[in-house]
Specification:
- With 245 residues, this protein is α/β, with parallel strands linked by helices.
- It has two domains: 172 residues, Rossmann fold; 55 residues, no CATH class.
- It has eleven helices and six strands.
- Strands 3-2-1-4-5-6 form a six-stranded parallel β-sheet, with helices on both faces.
Length: 245
């Protein structure tokens, strides 16, 4: 794996959880909704549904307590099935840990489901679900994660994710942002399904996701974490030339 940019090039790295460090394709939420409400889910654009708004949107009313409980349980069950590190994630985290680069993960699923998803990740890596403060794309969770890491400066902080609303939160927080096209929810393919696609189908999905993330304002877009090393090096050069996020 390519060498990663080292401190003081970057102050801290924040990662999305689902579709970035784990759960290639960010399948936990859509699988949960498909199982609970197959017909209603089929009528919705999966990328427009969030953990905070999915049930009210699908039910077209305020969910009842038993429906919320069933939703949380189904999310945790799906999270157990998708709790697998994405390609390159463990090597990357090990390198960052050896370099003493502060890093953490962010997620918007309920806390229990997030913890289950994060099971494959090292114990030293802190994480936070965005159950307090304003939801993405508000910058609250990004700032809180940096506060928890005891980071003194926003300068040199980077957010990596395939989730458009989290990337927007990073932009709103004043961070450098790197979008993940292939492993995030915009492509939405489980690893085996992604590999089963022919090259033209993969290229088409990848191109659409890449364009969407650049249009959002991401400073760089890569397919997945295995390509992060050269991307960080490029951002480091841009910072040295005086570019700001």
């Amino acid at each position: 794996m390519p060498t990663f940019a080292t401190p003081p090039d970057f102050t801290a790295l924040l990662f999305g959880l689902s579709g970035c460090l784990v759960d290639f394709g960010a399948r936990t939420l859509p699988v949960t909704l498909q199982r609970l409400y197959p017909q209603r889910f089929a009528d919705q654009a999966a990328t427009l549904l969030t953990a905070h708004t999915a049930l009210p949107q699908l039910l077209e009313r305020t969910p009842q307590a038993n429906e919320l409980h069933a939703f949380d349980q189904a999310l945790s069950e799906a999270a157990r099935e998708h709790a697998e590190a994405t390609p390159g994630a463990m090597t990357l985290l090990n390198d960052l840990h050896q370099q003493h680069t502060p890093c953490a993960w962010l997620d918007e699923l309920p806390r229990d489901a997030s913890i289950v998803l994060a099971t494959p990740l090292p114990d030293w890596l802190p994480g936070a679900s965005s159950t307090s403060g304003r939801p993405w794309p508000a910058p609250d969770s990004c700032w809180q994660a940096l506060i928890d890491l005891q980071v003194d400066l926003l300068d040199g902080c980077v957010l990596i994710s395939g989730e458009p609303r989290l990337l927007q939160a990073g932009l709103n927080a004043g961070l450098w942002t790197i979008g993940l096209a292939a492993s995030g929810p915009l492509c939405g393919q489980a690893p085996a399904d992604w590999q089963a696609l022919d090259s033209l189908e993969r290229d088409s999905l990848r191109a659409q996701a890449t364009l969407a993330l650049y249009r959002l304002g991401a400073h760089a877009v890569i397919d997945q974490l295995t390509e992060l090393g050269p991307c960080l090096s490029d951002l480091g050069l841009r910072r040295q030339k005086g570019e700001k996020p």
